[in-house]
Design a protein that fits this description.
Layout: E1 2-7, E2 24-29, E3 32-36, H1 43-51, E4 60-62, H2 68-80, E5 87-90, E6 97-100, E7 103-104, H3 111-116, E8 120-123, E9 128-131, E10 134-136, E11 154-156, E12 161-163, E13 171-175, E14 180-184, H4 191-199, E15 208-214, H5 224-234, E16 235-242, H6 247-256, E17 267-269
Parallel strand pairs: 3-4, 4-5, 5-8, 14-15, 15-16
Antiparallel strand pairs: 1-2, 1-17, 2-3, 6-7, 6-11, 9-10, 10-13, 11-12, 13-14
Helix pairs in contact: 5-6
């Protein structure tokens, strides 16, 4: 499986690609071409064109969760290309209206718009096999005591507002012999909870063979030390923390674990 980061907060020197505080990863696995998240704007499309990646023929689009830094580009993607007949796989909550700090941070387009554009939508809380050895993990059970304790803004319902624990937040796992390689969006559900969900797809005890994506380690209140301890016990490969991981968290992870910096345009081959 080959992963290309189409959009991240960081860009790599000498490549002249565009960055934005958002995430999008293009996945090639055998004959399958899967787009995981779409960034905030059309930046990921511009980068794909620069990199010679054709987004007009996708096997599937998978959305990690409904926040606009992962779904904003969908509008541009569906307007730019005819993707009718393409599968869209996500949790049923991704189209909810949500606010954070008074700002609208939900998915800017509706389910109806996606249907109008011909997408075949699979809304599910269960794991889905996307491609050979590659799975969407569905709703992540919140198992660890130290993660996902606080809401991220609110969900706006019919006449009410409820704290948003981003229950739609999910990830992908590529099941290699050594253990799952995890591809995550923002990890609101907890990066350790996501690893546990990925490992549960095996019928034997394994460690994660790698992780790329946002670990959601940003603020002082985030459980950095507990996460470092957990990752030391439950991973055996390289970590590529990006998007919503602070410099402080990256440095701390780097002290204890094999960490590689990653940014827009970077390519990773996973065996
Ligand atoms: Zn988010
Ligand atoms: Zn995010």
């Amino acid at each position: 499986m080959k992963l290309t980061v189409l959009c991240d907060n960081h860009t790599v020197i000498d490549r002249y690609l565009l960055g934005e505080p958002a995430l999008s990863i293009y996945i090639e696995n055998g004959r399958d071409r899967i787009l995981f998240d779409t960034g905030y704007s059309d930046v990921f499309i511009q980068n794909a064109m620069t990199l010679g990646i054709d987004l007009s023929h996708l096997s599937a689009i998978v959305i990690s969760h409904g926040h606009n830094d992962h779904t904003g580009g969908l509008f541009h993607l569906l307007n730019r290309f005819d993707l009718s007949g393409t599968r869209l796989i996500a949790h049923p909550d991704i189209f909810q209206k949500r606010i954070y700090d008074g700002l609208d941070v939900g998915c800017p387009i509706s389910r109806a718009f996606c249907e109008e554009k011909g997408l075949i939508i699979t809304e599910t809380r269960d794991p889905v096999k996307l491609s050979e050895n590659l799975y969407y993990l569905g709703e992540i059970p919140r198992q660890t005591a130290f993660e996902s304790r606080f809401p991220t803004g609110e969900i706006i319902g019919r006449g009410n507002r409820i704290p948003d624990y981003v229950m739609d937040d999910s990830a992908l796992a590529y099941l290699s012999e050594e253990g799952p390689f995890v591809i995550t969006g923002c990890s609101h559900s907890g990066i350790c909870n996501i690893l546990l969900a990925a490992v549960s797809l095996y019928d034997r005890r394994v460690k994660a063979s790698g992780i790329i994506g946002g670990f959601h380690l940003l603020q002082e209140s985030d459980p950095l030390e507990e996460t470092v301890r957990f990752l030391k016990d439950h991973t055996c490969g390289t970590l590529y923390p990006c998007h919503c991981v602070s410099l402080r968290a990256k440095c701390r992870l780097m002290q204890e674990l094999p960490v590689r910096e990653i940014g827009t345009g970077e390519v990773i081959e996973v065996q």
